[in-house]
Amino acid sequence: MADTLIRDNEGVLTLGGVSLPRLAARYGTPLYLMDVATIRARLNAWTAAVPAPNEVYFAGKAFLCRALIPLLQSAGVGLDVVSGGELLTALAAGMPPSRITFHGNLKTIAEMRIALAAGVGRVVADSDEELVRWDRLAAEAGRSVEVWLRLTPGVDPHTHRYITTGHVKSKFGWPLEGGAAEAAVGRALRLPHVRLTGYHAHIGSQILESRPYEETAEHMMAFARAMHTRYQFWPRYLDLGGGLGISDSGEEAPTPQELADAFSGIVTRGTPPGERVPIWAVEPGRSVVAQAGVTLYRVGVVKRAGDGTMYVVVDGGMGDNIRPALYEARYRALPVHMASGAPAPVTIAGRYCESGDLLVEDAVLPPLEPDDLLVVLDTGAYGYVMASQYNRVPVPAVVAVEDGTSSVWVEGLRWDEVHARDRAAPWPS
Ligand code: LLP
Questions:
Q1: For the whole model, what pTM was predicted?
Q2: 286 lines ligand 1 (CB under 6 A)
Q3: Which residue owns the Cα nearest ligand 1 atom 19?
Q4: Are 381 and 6 in contact (CB under 8 A)?
């Protein structure tokens, strides 16, 4: 939960010192809210846990807009991007290219050229084709490119299968098993405009155990040693990805400090005599921004279904938060005003034309009425960035709060913009 989400003396919820009804009146609903203090605290927890020269990169796919970049920079955190859009956002906001790593299992030639022209720090290559393309494009640009190889360590992180990435069937990277990763190292070392400096692994997201991370670090170090013997190549960097979960339904996530201590030990112990200990890196996304976010909705309808289910229907839903429908993700909701009356089970449903558009199926809330406000908690990661315009409902604004003030980070789509990009029919009506 956001660090600053508290009730004032009248029992009204406030975030960052700003009352939520005031925010609803000023910006409308639905509304994404980001608590800056929570983001700062989570970034600091990571940088405090990861001792220099090791590095923290925030995974921009979890949440990104221009206003986030200065927060990353003041925390000394770099950025992981996966598309030209994310890269251009970061560059537009003044992120030094050297602090950016460029990921993704398909980078288009246009995106690769943008990255090269900007002088992005490192690129994380994902396939043989991509390695060859980097070599060719770097040669054309008259330079070389620093590359890390995305490897798939075959570790099961015990999370939802849609957000598991390190298993053997994964579409990402080269599997450590079966010789593909070894061949990729050989290839990268032979390409004249590719400078191989590191390995990368990311095993999945919303991970609540330390063991899969330790196994990943161990497998990666064992692979690095095997490649040291095979090619006399020792990596300067080892990026162990992101994926640390946030505690939900009572399960506790490991802390950044616990992970960092484990990584430090495994990487140091796994380094052969005479070689430098690789600089290791992490790429947290969700653990930085998820709890900073809440989504503010207004109740539109309260109704009982034929089976007795009590629906509280709000003015947003799967367009602003696809995660319950896509991953069966569970959220908690709170009424904005301290309501009287006995709490009872309700289902918080969205306004989209789909039965599966349910935001919280097992809420227990005091009686709510049309026009009441409610918040869904911990929506700061993979909410706004995965928003859609389904049913032509405009994507809400993102507003940040800190120390009693609010500022717009991303404007919501206006009604007149919903069809602004449509062309009129080319035939007469
Ligand atoms: N690094 C790489 C290479 C990644 O692919 C990801 C996430 C991260 C870091 C950050 O992972 P995090 O710390 O945020 O878990 N849309 C899904 C999550 C997809 C994650 C994709 N990769 C969801 O809403 O749960």
A1: 0.96
A2: yes
A3: 163
A4: no
